[in-house]
């Protein structure tokens, strides 16, 4: 294998296969990833930490026959604790927050054979749909450097799109896997609630809203990593419905004739850009050509009620996290410790009565039951992933002094994704459309709770019918 061009010609499983065949060494793969990072990171700012020596050390003891043995990998700098390294959560408040042990998910990544050599940028406390904050700076989209890479897993998506790695860890509490996947032309699957573990320090993320997985260039990489990481760990408070097969096998399995509900507008009523509407309409036509039944139908739900419940859960958890950190530092939290968006969450949480949190949980659980009934008639819900193409940088910076403009931009950009965090359903963004000026636009598909298998079958079919692997950004080539 000669040079970087070959490195980028393969997905994660493909690179691991080259290692097994002896066509490339694990050391050479890591060198290629580091070289690419050094070339493009100054332009895109996707890496928050360079752990090159850590990655070199991992090469000494990789598990034999692991699915991703030797594949370079990056962790999102939020929640994923890697022993002996910092986890900053994108905030100066956590700038020296050293992990004493691995989280369960990181342990499973290691068992899958990946070589961790860095961490990726995130907006402070993973709060935003664009990766722009005081501590981490601005992460730029490899497809257009004046546009957002999405958030909160923006660094992960930018790194994969720019060819630093073929697969990177991401998390999703309101769309943070699917949003950057859409912005960066990648495949992004948010698993069902508790499909992947949150332990050992937490039982759930953001009151059950958040799930962790990866962003990838191929469907099979996502499926294979889910095979390597899914399932409960001892002490988990609950788990996703049992799945006894192999997710990787689902990718090549015909999905049959699916009943697909086409959600054209978000529950909030936010306007949908014509490019995003066109992406979904074109996908609907493709689905019908593939033999599926597509019917216009809106999922149930009152967004005023659901949006409030979501913000109660998010703000309460963020407030607890930053206050606990301040207490560790021996003081109270102050406005200048954190960005304005984070402080807004703390202020909002302080106004809530004690009943607000269980009330929010009750409301999202009821919405889950409504959606379960909806899925008696529909196998899958389809919509645009976002209501706009990748947005210009600036307004969604978490320290924007105009917080009203920040909130309005957030609500206009990402009105579709949060529904499936509230219900815990699996949901994926597929890169099926590019605008006339070359910006990626994702189409989102969501299935009944616990049914990642249907999504992966459909994703495999769509990837074969309308391949996207060969599409790479020109801005940082």
From TrEMBL:
InterPro entries: Amidase (IPR000120), Amidase_CS (IPR020556), Amidase_dom (IPR023631), AS_sf (IPR036928)
Matches recorded under PROSITE patterns: AMIDASES (PS00571)
Signal peptide: none
SUPFAM superfamilies with a match to the protein in the record: Amidase signature (AS) enzymes (SSF75304)
All residue ranges annotated as the Amidase domain in the record: 28-456
Any Pfam family the entry gives: Amidase
Annotated transmembrane regions: none
Annotated GO MF terms: catalytic activity
Top-rank taxon: Bacteria
Function: Hydrolyzes indole-3-acetamide (IAM) into indole-3-acetic acid (IAA).
Family label: Belongs to the amidase family.
The name this protein goes by in its record: Indoleacetamide hydrolase
Organism, as annotated: Flavimaribacter sediminis
């Amino acid at each position: 294998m000669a040079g970087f061009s070959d490195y980028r010609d393969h997905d994660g499983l493909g690179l691991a296969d080259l290692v097994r065949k002896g066509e490339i060494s694990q050391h050479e793969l890591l060198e290629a990833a580091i070289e690419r990072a050094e070339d493009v990171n100054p332009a895109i700012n996707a890496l928050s930490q360079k752990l090159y020596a850590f990655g070199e050390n991992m090469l000494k003891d990789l598990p034999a026959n692991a699915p991703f043995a030797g594949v370079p990998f990056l962790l999102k700098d939020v929640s994923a604790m890697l022993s002996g390294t910092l986890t900053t959560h994108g905030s100066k408040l956590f700038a020296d927050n050293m992990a004493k042990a691995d989280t369960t998910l990181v342990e499973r990544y290691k068992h899958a054979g990946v070589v961790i050599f860095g961490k990726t940028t995130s907006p402070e406390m993973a709060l935003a749909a664009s990766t722009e904050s005081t501590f981490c700076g601005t992460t730029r989209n490899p497809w257009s450097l004046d546009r957002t890479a999405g958030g909160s897993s923006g660094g992960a998506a930018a790194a994969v799109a720019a060819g630093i790695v073929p697969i990177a860890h991401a998390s999703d509490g309101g769309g943070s896997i699917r949003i950057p996947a859409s912005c960066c032309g990648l495949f992004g699957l948010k698993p069902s609630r508790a499909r992947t573990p949150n332990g050992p320090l937490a039982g759930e993320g953001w009151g059950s809203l958040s799930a962790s997985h990866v962003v990838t260039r191929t469907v099979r990489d996502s499926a294979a990593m889910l095979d390597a990481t899914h399932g409960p760990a001892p002490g988990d408070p609950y788990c996703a419905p049992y799945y006894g097969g192999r997710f990787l096998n689902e990718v090549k399995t015909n999905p049959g004739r699916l009943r697909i509900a086409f959600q054209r507008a978000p529950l909030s009523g936010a306007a949908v850009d014509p490019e995003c509407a066109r992406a979904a309409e074109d996908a609907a036509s493709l689905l019908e050509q593939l033999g599926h039944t597509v019917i216009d139908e809106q999922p149930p739900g009152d967004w005023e009620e659901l949006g409030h419940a979501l913000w109660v859960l998010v703000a309460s958890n963020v407030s607890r996290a930053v206050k606990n950190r301040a207490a560790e530092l021996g003081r109270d939290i102050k406005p200048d410790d954190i960005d304005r968006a984070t402080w807004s969450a703390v202020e909002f949480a302080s106004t809530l009565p004690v009943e607000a949190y269980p009330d929010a949980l009750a409301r999202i659980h009821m919405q889950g039951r409504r959606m379960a009934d909806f899925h008696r008639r529909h196998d899958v819900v389809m919509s645009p992933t976002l209501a706009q193409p990748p947005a210009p940088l600036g307004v969604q910076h978490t320290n924007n002094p105009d917080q009203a403009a920040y909130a309005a931009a957030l609500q206009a950009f990402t009105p579709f994704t949060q529904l499936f965090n509230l219900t815990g359903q699996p949901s994926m963004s597929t890169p099926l459309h590019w605008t006339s000026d070359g910006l990626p636009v994702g189409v989102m598909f969501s299935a009944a709770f616990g049914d990642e298998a249907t999504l992966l079958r459909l994703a495999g079919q769509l990837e074969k019918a309308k391949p996207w692997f060969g599409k790479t950004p020109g801005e940082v080539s």
